[in-house]
Design a protein that fits this description.
This protein is an alpha/beta fold and 330 residues long. It is 38% helix and 18% strand. Helix 3 (77-89) runs parallel beside helix 4 and helix 5 packs parallel to helix 6 (179-193). The relative contact order is 0.12.
Amino acid sequence: MLCLLSAAVFMSGCGSVKAPEPKAEPLEVADESLIVVGVSQLGSESVWRTANSASIQRVFTKENGFFLNFKNARQKQENQIKAIRSFISQQVDYIIFSPVTEEGWDTVLLEAKEAGIPVILMDRMVKVEDESLYTAWVGSDFQEEGEKAGQWLADHLEKEARQEEEIHIVVLRGTEGSSSTIGRTKGFSRIAAAQENWKILEEGDGEFTTAKGKEVMENFLEKYEDIDVVVSQNDDMTFGALEAIEEAGKTVGTDGEIIMISFDAVKAALEMVEEGIINVDIECNPEQGEYIEEVIRKIEQGEEPDKLNYVSENVFTRENVSDFIDERIY
């Protein structure tokens, strides 16, 4: 009895010694011929992101030969890291994820590599010391999107003979540290730097959401009386900015005081392009599921996929948008 009591006291005094947490077991898939795919989506912060998720869920079905384990990270990197580690424990065949930010992935991606699981990046990029930590990336050329926006504005102002006028610009940026924000900012800034009469008054973080976009735009309107151009790095922020501009009693679009440049090209925004409310919308194609499937099929056949896989995209103005609105499903 004394021995047992002594043992109990000893055990209770070792609070720092914990039993190991149970590891996740491999997913039980009824049909072993199915390719198991774990997807960590960064969130559902925008119409675009919802369409991106729908593209994945539409492609990776049992009918198409896949078993999909889909997790929403709700814009938190720690949730994505946790999801990726659960996929590794479950011994999925492929890991797909759209990173919240570019940095902070080396450790967990090394764990996936050591487990022999190919990682495919979707939409956004990561910044890692060893690029072999991911197999392929599928998405948009964000810097080129920014350059397209800048070049459209340069051409538009030339048509209006405003090359000598000082053009005041504000920029609604997306989530800080994300690939799309970095690329679009860099691309537009490159074109802007070559225009002596362009003046970027301020850039603000609108977090890719309508509410934050409106809040930042309200702040811009309070600080600057003469804004000529708004560059909004996604449609959801644009919707918020338009509300703020209307409430401030200013006009926007093809016949307004303020030129509105947007990105993503979701259907609701394209309808505004057709109405002349948004001057131009640079497409960011969310339909990436089929591109990712193609990468996986190549790997399954023993082929090496391209490291970078760009999706096709367009630039929409009032002149061409009517040809595309009806076919837009998001």
